[in-house]
Write a structure and sequence with these properties.
This protein is mainly β. About 10% of the residues lie in helices and about 50% in strands.
């Protein structure tokens, strides 16, 4: 019994000493709050590329920082379409550190207003990801109205005529230098003079088909002196029927 009492006294003493040590001045506070990373983008999560000439590849670099107390770990990057690219400078950001994400947009297949997103997956957001949005307006330096050639009701060996309007939205004079097509009987009469910036001109289209076709699936390339749009493609729609007997 005496041995058991001694053992109990020593255990009690150890517990008291431990409690005193925890309460001693200078002991670290036990807040219980886990450390975490926090991604911040000083320039915001939205931006506008403004006016983009069709075919141009534009880019913007955004800086981001880690305002948290743990290392920011960047994961995969998602984009809303194949026209958009994104790359970060580093995938590990210490507390108080910073990095950057480079965003590119290829306007080749677009016209008019665009709205795209880039998703940064990381441990720095309570959602697990941060979405960046960008907008812009893609402008054709060479505007065609209409944007295709439509010849409904064409007949074999009979002339059909269509007129297009071309607008020079660029900053330099525009010259239409020629055309090429595999559609027999299609001729484009291009404006002989250069079109000044902001100016318009007419393209006269003449089509004399040689054989019937229920549905046309051809097109024509118009060549230009514009370095960003050296060719403009116009789809040809419609059908060709056998000419009626007089």
């Amino acid at each position: 019994m005496r041995y058991a009492a001694v053992t109990l006294s020593r255990s009690l003493l150890a517990a008291v000493v431990a409690a005193l040590l925890c309460a001693a001045p200078g002991a670290p506070a036990q807040t219980g709050a886990p450390s975490r990373a926090m991604i911040v983008l000083p320039e915001g999560k939205q931006f506008d590329f403004g006016r983009i000439y069709r075919g141009a590849v534009v880019e913007k670099t955004l800086t981001f920082g880690n305002a948290g107390s743990d290392t920011l770990r960047m994961g995969s990057i998602g984009v809303s379409c194949g026209c958009t690219g994104a790359m970060v400078t580093t995938d590990r950001i210490p507390p108080g550190g910073s990095g950057a994400v480079r965003i590119t947009f290829n306007s080749k297949n677009f016209s008019g207003p665009v709205h795209k997103t880039v998703t940064l997956n990381s441990n720095g957001d309570t959602l697990g990801y941060t979405t960046i949005e960008f907008t812009g307006t893609v402008v054709d330096e060479i505007g065609m109205n209409p944007q295709s050639i439509i010849v409904p009701g064409a007949e074999v060996h009979k002339l059909s005529k269509v007129t297009l309007t071309v607008t020079n939205n660029g900053m330099t004079p525009l010259a239409l230098t020629g055309f090429r097509t595999e559609l027999k009987g299609l001729i484009l009469k291009l404006p002989p003079d250069s079109i000044p910036p902001g100016g318009t001109a007419a393209i006269d289209v003449e089509f004399t088909p040689e054989s019937p076709s229920p549905m046309l699936s051809d097109g024509v390339f118009v060549t230009t002196n514009n370095i960003r749009q050296p060719e403009v493609y116009l789809q040809v729609y419609g059908g060709v029927r056998q000419a009626k007997s007089p």
